[in-house]
Amino acid sequence: MWDEYFTGKSVVVGGGSTGIGAAAVEQFARAGAHVVIADVADEIGTTLARSLSSKGNHAVYRHCDVSSEADVEGVFSWVDATYGSLDVLYANAGIEWTKDVRHTTLDEWQRVVDVNLTGMFLVCRAAMRRMCDQGFGSIVVTSSPHAIATVPDAGAYAASKGGAHALVRSLALEGAPYGVRVNGIIPGTIDTPMVRREAQASSDPEEQLARMASAHPLGRIGQPFEVAAAALFLASPLASFMTGSMVTVDGGLMSGLPAGPPLSYNN
Ligand SMILES: NC(=O)c1ccc[n+]([C@@H]2O[C@H](COP(=O)([O-])OP(=O)(O)OC[C@H]3O[C@@H](n4cnc5c(N)ncnc54)[C@H](O)[C@@H]3O)[C@@H](O)[C@H]2O)c1
Known about the structure:
Blueprint: H1 3-6, E1 10-14, H2 19-30, E2 34-39, H3 42-54, E3 58-63, H4 69-83, E4 88-91, H5 106-134, E5 137-142, H6 155-175, E6 180-187, H7 193-200, H8 205-214, H9 224-235, E7 246-249
Parallel strand pairs: 1-2, 1-4, 2-3, 4-5, 5-6, 6-7
The protein binds nicotinamide-adenine-dinucleotide.
């Protein structure tokens, strides 16, 4: 279905070893793209690349801590040398964090911001430099509902994702004159290793997952492929008039108030 848009295109997926990123890697690769998995989970990412390659798809793994300028430059230089141009960046790498601000150390705060926001800046900057020079390209980033409405004990994570929204707007304006589009995705709760880790940290993981599911009007949590599909859409020419958009893929989560309507009406 996506072949006509992605065959032979070069795609970098930051945070592509597991979860949402891995689903996007699979969908881009199956659509005929040359996919670079840029991640720190070396073993899982290498296995994913090998598995896709063994089926005739094009995927390679490159170690890249997105918070390291040297790592990021290394991956994008490799893309220059190998493919000659860059069509798509999916900036998806992220880490979770749960602690109240009063007890968050500067190092802990810094690590979350380094990966989730500075890492996004570094990969987006590398892509923007190339895409603006070549006059085409599409960037998609993964944000979070926490950028808009959050819960207690998520200060560093929420702040890092709020920054992602502001960065998307800035990049969209800077890229537009060059034909470069930049959009973001706000996933609801998605069944990934990150969410499984969060559930495991609670006293009753199954109950926690059920509560997460019930918070979504569609009555379930999402699957990684459902977010990946939105990433492919935004990266494709089908979204040619979209830039600076933040698209929710959240089963209706952000449409409602937690306790339902605040007033009872005459019906
Ligand atoms: N799962 C959800 O419910 C959910 C909801 C909203 C937003 N998100 C966001 O979606 C993105 C993907 O999360 P996920 O749920 O698939 O989690 P995940 O933990 O399965 O995937 C995150 C990926 O990022 C990689 N990564 C972590 N630190 C990195 C670094 N410094 N450099 C490069 N790669 C790094 C991990 O190795 C992993 O492959 C994250 O940005 C997350 O904040 C997830």
